[in-house]
Amino acid sequence: MDINTASEAQIASLPGIGAILAKRVMMKREELGGFNSLEHFSDVMGLKKYTLDRIAPLVVFSHKSNAPINSPASGRIIDY
């Protein structure tokens, strides 16, 4: 499962994650624009080693963009 594109429900289904942590993952993912790696994800989310060991074979991380995910467009829209 790609943590940078997975839904909240998909993330919650990972062993040791659950609904509350999945919601935090979604907020941090949006704030950061995604996670770089399993280590980055673990550091940011404060995962315990046993949780990290359980999810490591189940997750991947797509390329992280510099812009936050779902960021609104900025600037003016001009309609002629």
UniProtKB/TrEMBL annotation:
InterPro entries: Endo/Exo/Phosphatase_dom_1, RuvA_2-like. It comes from the Bacteria. Gene3D superfamilies: Photosystem II 12 kDa extrinsic protein. Transmembrane segments: none annotated. This is Helix-hairpin-helix domain-containing protein. It comes from Paenibacillus woosongensis.
